[in-house]
Design a protein that fits this description.
It is found in: Membrane; Mitochondrion membrane. Pfam families: Pet100. It comes from Escovopsis weberi. By secondary structure, the protein is mainly α. The protein is built from 3 helices and no strands. The protein starts with a helix and ends with a helix. The relative contact order is 0.04.
């Protein structure tokens, strides 16, 4: 049977193996697991209006878009589609 050296070797293996695995998979995570282009660029995101003039302009844009949509739906219903 083995002696003290074998027990020291086994103990070292039992301790260092999980530490080595955690070190290997735990380092450099940003470069290893990033997905390029996942998050939208700031210019592609919606912008929340901050002052009153921007809020009014956004409101008018939404109302105009809604009127166009209603007119389009009215034309479709007249044609029977």
């Amino acid at each position: 049977m083995g002696g003290l050296n074998l027990e020291v070797f086994k103990f070292g293996t039992y301790v260092l193996f999980p530490i080595g695995i955690m070190y290997y998979f735990g380092t450099n995570l940003d470069n290893r697991f990033t997905v390029g282009g996942f998050w939208p660029k700031p210019e592609e995101c919606n912008h929340v209006p901050k002052d009153r003039d921007e809020v009014v302009a956004e409101y008018h844009r939404i109302v105009e878009r809604q009127k166009l949509r209603q007119a389009h739906e009215a034309r479709r219903s007249e044609r029977g589609e």
